[in-house]
Amino acid sequence: MISGHHFNHHTNIYYYFSGYIGLAVAFYYLGHEGLVKAAIIAGFVMILQNVLAVAVLQFYSRDAGSRTSPAATLGSAMTNPVILSALAGIIYSLLGLPMPVILDRSLTILKGMALPMALLVIGASLSFEKIRLVFASMVMTSVLKLLVMPAIGSADYFCRAWVIFSIETGF
């Protein structure tokens, strides 16, 4: 079983990559269009992650005799300000309401520095002492994310391509 310290380290790596570094990569590699698509996906994923995090925390923090209903867990997650702000943004976007000019201009100024600032904050928060403590699990996570997961995805792709090729050619 993974300890709380190591679990926290692995989840932090995931959140940093998907939330900050992933959006920066999408912007600098795919441009504005890629950033827009990644941000839309990130909004929905963030809501799901937070709901699941609250559910897991409530499950493991409850007393042995008490039970928390799924509705209470969902209600507790939906009071999270991060989730509320993401839902408000999604609803505002779906309604197609125009952005007030002053807010649009203010956000235009801020958006140019948001991703670089997030990367600077992540870099500044690195602690080589903490990295040394979890180096083995960090290497394992990196190998899984950089080698094993792409290998599984590639194998899946080639298997599907072979099936389609076999069906089309009658091979």
The assigned structural class equals: mainly alpha
What global shape is seen? extended
Record field, number of beta strands: 0
| Backbone CA Rg | 21 Å
Distance between the termini: 47 Å
Q: Count the helices. How many?
A: 6
What is the element string, with H for helices and E for strands?
HHHHHH
Describe the structure.
It is a single chain. This protein has 171 residues and is mainly alpha-helical. The chain is built from 6 helices and no strands. It is extended and about 60 Å long.
What is this entry, summarized?
Helices cover 86% and strands 0% of the residues. It is built from 6 helices and no strands.
Labels describing this entry:
single chain; 171 residues; mainly alpha; 6 helices; 86% helix
Write the layout of secondary structure elements.
Elements: H1 4-61, H2 70-77, H3 81-95, H4 101-125, H5 128-133, H6 135-169
Helix pairs in contact: 1-2, 1-3, 1-4
